[in-house]
Specification:
Length: 557
Amino acid sequence: MRRLAWLTGLGVGCVVVAGLAQAQVHVLTAERVHTSDPAHPVAQAVAWDAQGRILAVGGADDLRARYPDARRVEAPGKTVIPGLIDAHGHVMGLGYALMRADLVDARDKADVIARLREYEKQLPANAWLLGSGWDQNDWPEKAFPTAADLDAAFPDRPVWLERVDGHAGWANSAALRAASAKASRPLDGEWQPDGGRIERAGGRPTGVFIDAAMSLVHAVVPAPDAAYRRQALEKATQAAVRNGLTGVHDMGVSREDLALMKQFADEGRLPLRIDAYADGDDAALADRCAGGLYRHAGGRLQMRGVKLYADGALGSRGAALLEDYSDDPGNRGLLVTEPAALEAAMRKARGCGVQVATHAIGDRGNRLVMDAYARVLGDAAKTDHRWRVEHAQVVAPEEFPRFAALGVIASMQPTHATSDMPWAQDRLGPVRIRGAYAWQRLQASGAKLALGSDFPVESVDPRRGLHAAVTRQDGHDAPAGGWMPDQRLSAVEALRGFTADAAWAAHDEGEVGRLAPGLRADFVVLDEDPLAVPGEQLDDLHVRSTWVDGKAVYEAE
């Protein structure tokens, strides 16, 4: 692949001050520029200054004439779009996933074992074997695995494997023994931890831990050292920009991880913007309440919000439902946070001027969050607070109008729909499924949508999100016509959800999300036009380069 060419247009001889100023300007020209700016949606050129601020957007001839001494970036035949923003991801989680055994799309337990055996070859003798990405819904038997499924292959080495949604984990017997030795009470019996569930058979743990119960194993998994954490952050951010992301809303960032990100920002090693949301009612939120909202001087890192949890995930039957799971009578899921504690955290955040984003997947989880938002916000619901529901995945019919009425953003992940569609109706039945992954229904009710992926639960590649949003099909373009196709978004709506609307959801619309004068020169150069190609081709867009603050942070070879 050909790299973009830099063409420098500097005068010869004595250069006046105006010429020097123009030499600091860059002008990019392309076949077309989609700005996500309703006032000027399409252009052919963008000019920006030495600080990476956009000076002008318009016709190629006009900007060349306006800035005759500017450095030129030529992208003939290419399409430029605003930098893509993932409105819900987990940066350190992605980095760790890239450094552990990859179990995504494993066909069955035998495939898991084979991948683990291969990965184990690189491990020291006494190290834990860690992996992530398994999904029992993709296996023939559909049932949760057990420790016994791992023990024959790994009788002595502790194994801990997180499910694809991050809401369940699978341990072998060696890991169970380690967890039992440190736990404050025996893992046997009928008791359950608050906000979680230990899967048992005959009163003994089977090896699967759901939501808060996972902490029993996390307590004995060796913590990553500083070098490992730095490597994880490096891998995650490079993967993001390689796929056209210039920003991410990082949902659930600890005080320690924010400090690491700050180090990277100080060193000039942060290639994209991270809007960090504090990890619940913990130290990072306490810091914001004590010291105010955080923004790095370089403009690539900030923390002005908090991520809270209401319930679990649908795939592990932890999402809190108003009625029983259709495929598991008697089970209505889990509340990860006790409602009074959840509301107290919301009140604390509001008192500190911190934006609230709350994970809610099931219809009961969404109702509880909307009820709490209504009580906590009160008359302030009519203000520009931009509180969010993360996922808004299964919504009862009467709850749809409340999003707009309370001014709540629905932060949704298109690829969740296409990943979950083979089994989602089994969980919910034919009636409730109509309120699930209902992008158009929420939008029609007046709600604002912000789009993301929830990586590493899903791929970090936003092109897959654009494809899923427009087609409601998987990577093989199935099913024909899309799953519940009436909920598809247009290409314009999908692109806006990953650009202007995502920026707005984090109070960043004055900085990024569009290509307009005064905003930052964050953009992506593509071989194809995402608003012109068939929806089925959106996941095949070719990223030529990714730019942040007017500088290329990734260029294809």
